[in-house]
Amino acid sequence: MGSLNAEHQLFQQNPVTWSWEQVYLCSSRILEIIAFDELKTDYKNPIDQCNTLNPTVEKVKKIKRVKIALKLVLPEYLIHAFFCVMFLCAAEWLTLGLNMPLLAYHIWRYMSRPVMSGPGLYDPTTIMNADILAYCQKEGWCKLAFYLLSFFYYLYGMIYVLVSS
Amino acid sequence: MQFPSGYGSHPPNYSAPSGHYSQVPNKAAASHLDNQYRASYYPTYYSSPAQNVMTPSVGTSVLNTQESQQLYNKTPHTVGSAEGPVQGAISSASYLHTSAQQSYSAFGNHYSTSVSSSVASQGFPLNSDHYAMPVVSSAVYPNVSYPPAAPGSVYGQAFTSQSLPVVGQVKETNKFSSQSTSVPHSLQQHVPVGYNTTLSTTSSAQSVQDNLCSNLTRSVAKVNNQINTGIVFLEKNLSLSISQKFAIPKAPNLNNFPSPAIDSSSTTSSASPVLNNYDALEGGGYPEIVSVFNTCGISFVLPETRSVTSSPVPAPSVPQTSKASKPFGYGYPTLQPGYQNAAAPTPVQPSNPGHHPGLQHYPQQYPGVNQLTSSIGGLSLQHSQQPESLRPVNLTQDRNILPVSSVPAPVPNLNSDLRKLNCSPDSFRCTLTNIPQTQALLNKAKLPLGLLLHPFRDLTQLPVITTSTIVRCRSCRTYINPFVSFIDQRRWKCNLCYRVNDVPEEFMYNPLTRSYGEPHKRPEVQNSTVELIASSDYMLRPPQPAVYLFVLDVSHNAVEAGYLTIVCQSLLENLDKLPGDSRTRIGFITFDSTVQFYNLQEGLSQPQMLIVSDIDDIFLPTPDSLLVNLHESKELIKDLLNALPNMFTNTRETHSALGPALQAAFKLMSPTGGRISVFQTQLPSLGAGLLHSREDPNQRSSTKVVQHLGPATDFYKKLALDCSGQQTAVDLFLLSSQYSDLASLACVSKYSAGCIYYYPSFHHSHNPAQAEKLQKDLKRYLTRKIGFEAVMRIRCTKGLSIHTFHGNFFVRSTDLLSLANVNPDAGFAVQMSIEESLTDTSLVCFQTALLYTSSKGERRIRVHTLCLPVVSSLADVYAGADVQAVVCLLANMAVDRSVSSSLADARDALVNAVVDSLAAYMSTASNLQQSMLIAPNSLKLFPLYILALLKQKAFRTGTSTRLDDRVYAMCQMKSQPLVHLMKMIHPNLYRIDKLIDESTIHVNDRVVPQPPLQKLSAEKLTREGAFLMDCGSIFYIWIGKNCDNNFIKDVLGYPNYASVPQTMTQLPEVDALSSERTRSFVSWLRDSRTLSPVLQVIKDENPAKTEFFQHLIEDRTEAAFSYYEFLLNIQQQVCK
């Protein structure tokens, strides 16, 4: 657990922020998963057809929620990239190695996004495609699992360092 | 190198198309010098295949033969004489097939007799005889499905003869006047019987009535006693019948209703399934739906006393039976004992003898019975022998696979009643008319499952229904349709989610017959395509007026092309025919490097032009007088239209600010919504949304990568989404001679549910064919029906789910399409997947509901319902494959694939679709020889169509194809309805120089000859003949060099071949028989479609013949296989 020593210095600076950011990553993932699920299960809603034509207040609220959740993607990428840079600075090679694949995936994902002028990842015209929706959901679950595991790993590292010092 | 004249004048971009299509005809032209015309084609098209072909024996036979017929007939002999001739091989290969024929004939006999007897029977009492028949027949025939159809046919007859006068009536007046039906009501004959029984039951029911009064008040579900619930309904019916004096129709109900419950306990192992199941279904089966339903805050009046949500329902003792009984409704007495063994969905089976014959007639009248019998019809596939559609066809040997006339849509294997009720294949088609039971089975079949829709098609007979309550399922919101089952008079079961719903009081009254208590005879239940006038519940804002905005390019390029004259002229002619009412509004915007608005406010002496040159921040100069009422400002509009073509004649402006003009149009339209028609002639070069040329002309015939099929910017997509949100559609007319990046521009129409027209190398005088096409398209475009602020929802039976949509729209939810405009020429495709196994149902239904505002400001709902059987064996899936629908769906999927991945991927996927499905089929039929390429009869055209698709502009490689042409072809594949798309993929070729009187049909006192379809191969062309190719939007008439002079003189109106001009677009009216026949044939072809196609006469040395020859898809080109080679290629891959 020698590599954690370096992490020790890092976490010493502001351990609270670290874990909070990790919590943010997890919660943004959860929100995103919920958003996709809402998109997917929308058809179960037996609202009258007129309501679906012209969104009711409830519907608008929901759409807004979905939009907000989908907007969390970019901050998530940035925070994760920031983590990686910090691990690099702290020479945390093991942790960095664990995070590299995800970083690479994020970069690839953003490079291959649909043509759009603004920032963002999801195209409203293709997001309802069943394949893409299923893919996004699966991606959400996988990343949530990864963030949760790494959260506990970081927590463990922090406590270990705190206790051992 | 020869090119159409239009190409010559173009700037260098397009001046050097080195297509090899142009080479092929050159070869052909060279061979024309040879006197042996037929023979000369053979070396050209068939010699090289022979060198590539792996099986030399076939190849040599190809080389040796000169007659096409011999070619394929000989091959069996050379390949293996042991097999014998083709017919022998086929018949010996499948003895099953012959036995199928036998059983079919026997079947037919039986069926016809039963029908005739039922026809002969005057009244319903005779029907009891039919009930006796199944018992006998089931012993003889394993198939029990048709005997129950016999009583149904009585019903069906009554229905048709009733409904025919009714349709017109409804359409005309929207009121239901009382026209007594031609079929005598046989109920009256039956009155005494029914009445007697009514009395007896009534007395018994009355005795328990008092005890059950409390049950009426919401405690029914808790009690959960089958008898109790049964009697509650009894009681309810009774009270109704007594008070309303409709005792006669109700009476059989009383008897019928409890009987299944009682009988079921005696015959089924589970004692209490029937009624409990429905509680379980409502309360437990759909808990999430019910809860959503409640949280939505929509209050539904629940008139029935049954508690829907809160009742704790005891689980049924045998869950399987509860599932099984779902699709069937209550056990109807028509089921056969033998049937239960065969089918997993075992309905509650009552014992026939227990029923009084006189009473049985009544349930027959419920469509529920129809559904039941049809469900048996669906299942009967398992029993029946191999049908015609499964007859194996050896593709490499059987050359003449094209049918004589057009390819018909396969008819779902349903019972005759349902078949009659089912939606027309023109508006609703499924790729598999037998739905596989599970996704696993679907995967095994390797065929795509999907729907092809043409929902807003022009219909001549459409029942329009005005009603205050539109009857819909309470949980899934399905509209009531012919395939629901009426459990009793007051309740119906949804055929999509199986929920039991109440029949509203109003629905009990049938306005057609003016009778009460016949909900199953309402027009909604008698027609699978209906249009309902929606109430104000279906609108949140008042229906919008028809608003049309024309955005016209007036840059130098546009003026040079001269389209303005044609557009303004067409508009002037059709101004009064624009669909709309007194509120109709119209506006014009023109643009070059600036944007010009036209103030047409009533009272002005002449139109006022307002120029906005600040294109970076566009604004509306006057907000309210740019879109004006068509009727109030008609004179000003006419002035403007007359002046417009000449206003810009001397313009030097070459730039085009399309983006800002569209933004302005959006601003102008957003308060109301409506239709924007954009005419664009070049690449947008200024302001937002400017584009750059992306096409490399040298890569046009590349076989490797075709780039830039996707948009370059998302400006147009975002604009389209904004428009869609404001109920505005953008229709794009692209009339350009150069590359204009249609891939980016098309987005503006794609996502706003508009349509796209493209006229490559348009010029008003140099290219008269295109000019004429524009004129005809505009006429149709301006006068056709239009629906505003529309949404379309597609519902399907529980277990199926929608995977992907294809077409021009914005997908708002998993099953909801937002269509700002809907037009009658728009088609849609839907890919489906099977999420849950369909083992517990024998029928699946699909329902499309299109809610739109008509041009008269009426909110309307057009509902189509399609019903299909479910099958469990792979052979049945193949038997029901609809090859045209499959090909169209695959084309849609391939377009998506080529945009998201690459063209090569899409082409591979298309070939793999054929290879996989044929391999899967051949593996199911074990008795087939693996060395041959066998396809079921239903799929025999599959390889041909796929080859045609691979040679279509959208997907071809190695042939010079302009990027815009390719993208346009792809757009069309996504948005054309099936009929048009099929003609685009595989045109029809007819020989028209010898139209004979045989095989003619009479249409409106006109004799229309019906020449047989020819293969799309140059071998069919002879220099002595004249041929007509029907490509959907264009007709080519190709005249051979040695064509009969009489034909040229009579039909074309010229003395000889040499004097026929190069550009000829009309057939003259010559008073000769052959001319008359030809013209009547051509106009018959024209009448069959909405868009009237352009006719082009092509002589053999005409440069335009490349267009003609590239459609001969069975021939070999330098870049692509001939049909025979393609088959061998597939065979190789299949056998691998």
Automatic annotation (TrEMBL), chain A:
What membrane topology is given?
Answer: Multi-pass membrane protein
**GO CC annotation:** membrane
In which family does this protein belong, per the annotation? Answer: Belongs to the cornichon family.
Q: Which organism is it from?
A: Falco tinnunculus (Common kestrel)
Task: State the InterPro entries in the record.
Answer: Cornichon, Cornichon_conserved
Span-the-membrane segments of this chain are 77-103, 144-163
Q: Which UniProt keywords apply?
A: Membrane, Transmembrane, Transmembrane helix
Tell where it localizes: Membrane
Name of this chain's protein:
Cornichon family AMPA receptor auxiliary protein 1
UniProtKB/TrEMBL annotation, chain B:
How does the record say this protein sits in the membrane? Peripheral membrane protein
Q: Where is this region: Disordered?
A: 1-22
Name under which the protein is recorded: SEC24 homolog B, COPII coat complex component
Family according to the record: Belongs to the SEC23/SEC24 family. SEC24 subfamily.
One Gene Ontology term from the biological process aspect of the record: intracellular protein transport
Which UniProt keyword terms apply here? Answer: Cytoplasm, Cytoplasmic vesicle, Endoplasmic reticulum, ER-Golgi transport, Membrane, Metal-binding, Protein transport, Transport, Zinc
CDD domains attached to this UniProt entry = Sec24-like
Superkingdom? Eukaryota
Q: Which Pfam families would you find in this protein's record?
A: Gelsolin (PF00626), Sec23_BS (PF08033), Sec23_helical (PF04815), Sec23_trunk (PF04811), zf-Sec23_Sec24 (PF04810)
In this protein, which residues make up the domain named Sec23/Sec24 helical? 882-982
Q: Which residues form the Sec23/Sec24 trunk domain?
A: 543-782
From which source organism is this entry?
Falco tinnunculus (Common kestrel)
A cellular component term from Gene Ontology for this protein is: endoplasmic reticulum membrane
Q: Where is the Sec23/Sec24 beta-sandwich domain?
A: 787-871
